[in-house]
């Protein structure tokens, strides 16, 4: 048996990777120094895995930004707008990721059901990809002296399925096939024996239709590089069409045994003889110790199915979804640390499992947490507002008297260095609570004035008091614990520190009321109260696994409802309950989606169902493909839903129209994740496209997410352009009346 890994966290224990990237972007470091530092970090990650005792260490998982972007760049899928005199320069690479003065960034989407965002590869018309360089090979050559390595690469099916702009799977596959073959040949020539080919898209239902293309791809690989062992890696669910798929001419399969019915599939259909099984036994998506007894049972079963020499034990997916190590996390509630396993601890578990024939190892395994099957907690109920949307909207229009195409923002305003430094000083005790709160108030006041000057119709307080939209609520509710360094990459250099839900969630008292009221006291215009919704708090935390998700979401909703009432009683009349993770939590298998949608909608509605008809409830979602989820989103019954519309907004709105979505829509007219400032014309065009589909009274105008990552100058200029665009359109609407 071998121990193996699929991918290592990139951030670095002290977020060295993030800091290196950001220093380079700020031009505080030369390209040579940047490359040298990144190379060093890459080798440290390889060494840490080898030192943990992992036999087969991945090479190629390290990136400067994102693995899908790397693959697109390697295959020369560089959109024309990002090409420069040196098309293979870091300038082009980061321009694709983050945009540049004259080129908008490539889109970002959630990676399956995770909070990690990948850069969406774009296929331009008639594009002919070519192999610019061989990234897995370069990383393999760098790593192979330090460890036994397995190059990893995103497989062609997944790469194409997650791309946009290609006409057909077949056509794109035909173009990519020779490039993959060249990659594989070069790897083989340089000594690689086994390559991990990530095909997580094999878990999607509907795969059957594509099986003939998938077969033709992998048959071509088998013919072209017969001596190289390809191991297809799937994760996050059991693969579809298991029996047919496992007949592919590859050397092995990586399967996730922590999700879906993978074990049943093997029990029913067996595992193909003489193939490698890379068994994902240690959950790569949570931070809990493995249930030792259950893992041993599974291991005994697998040993009977597969020759030990063909059995690799590994985490269920890449470890980029968990923090690097729990070592040093000594500020947690008593008894919690012993139950935690981050990446390093998970690798130790893998190594111990491989040694399970040794009695000491077995004893150790049996001491790991024995969390039982989840117990039922409170279950959700279907509660909803007493009045229909049309009744509510009539009353609300009388209260708010907003202009056509009302202008607003999504909540957060720039979290500048100064904001973060002040919070750090408060946490370190170098400034007092009073000083910190005064600073936050001053920043809020300054930005209320800026928003007034820019002509926003509905203002926000700016969320300056929040480290993160989930962590902050966790800190102010009972039942959550916080790590010091539990950072997980969210996109590019940005990280989140998901709180740990380890106990019953309870409301302690008003969280957002005072600052929202303070902001409201400074302006005649409405200020939106700003909350993170129950489903998002759940999905972006590491939740206990001895309760069903439905019960936890329901408890969070009960706590948030008290916050909603505290705001309403204080006179706040618009409340936004953000649910950006609502779509992301949707199970990957269609057959499991209905149950999730039911309890997720119930939790969202339970958080506010008994507010007054005049109280306007907003919600916001971002970076999601939710057109197929519109019936569910409509059931959430929010008065206003803000969504991304800057790319293909018109088409998206058409989907809303076709579905007869009847509530208001906030058009996210510009992409906030890029430092690029969109022009008035661009945003005007987006608004006009949407107006071709639905009338103006249905729309609000806003950015596509919060502005916390932007600098003050970028935020002000973009908001100014957005307001100009809205006013131009308003004027032309008046003239056509
Ligand atoms: C909306 N999004 C979110 C997602 N998930 C969340 N949990 N939260 C989200 O908001 N998923 C989808 C998207 C992803 N978007 C983002 C956007 C921005 C960030 C981000 O900016 N992350 C920050 C870290 C934020 C944070 O928690 N900050 C803390 C700690 C700050 C810190 O690092 N302090 C320094 C000292 C600072 C100084 O002296 O200048 C230190 O401790 O060393 C805080 O503000 O207090 C990031 O930097 O990556 C994430 C996801
Ligand atoms: N209100 C939050 C939503 C992010 S999804 C923000 O503006 O940052
Ligand atoms: Zn958002």
From TrEMBL:
Chain positions recorded as L-homocysteine binding sites: 410-412, 578
Domain Cobalamin-independent methionine synthase MetE C-terminal/archaeal per the UniProt entry, residue ranges: 405-727
GO MF term (any one): 5-methyltetrahydropteroyltriglutamate-homocysteine S-methyltransferase activity
Record Gene3D superfamilies: 3.20.20.210
Keyword Amino-acid biosynthesis: yes
Spans traversing the lipid bilayer: none
Pathway: Amino-acid biosynthesis; L-methionine biosynthesis via de novo pathway; L-methionine from L-homocysteine (MetE route): step 1/1
UniProt keyword terms in alphabetical order: Amino-acid biosynthesis, Metal-binding, Methionine biosynthesis, Methyltransferase, Repeat, Transferase, Zinc
EC number(s) on file: 2.1.1.14
Broadest EC class assigned to this enzyme: transferase
UniProt: L-methionine binding residues: 410-412, 463, 578
Function: Catalyzes the transfer of a methyl group from 5-methyltetrahydrofolate to homocysteine resulting in methionine formation.
Protein name: 5-methyltetrahydropteroyltriglutamate--homocysteine S-methyltransferase
UniProt source species: Metabacillus mangrovi
Organism lineage: Bacteria, Bacillati, Bacillota, Bacilli, Bacillales
Gene designation: metE
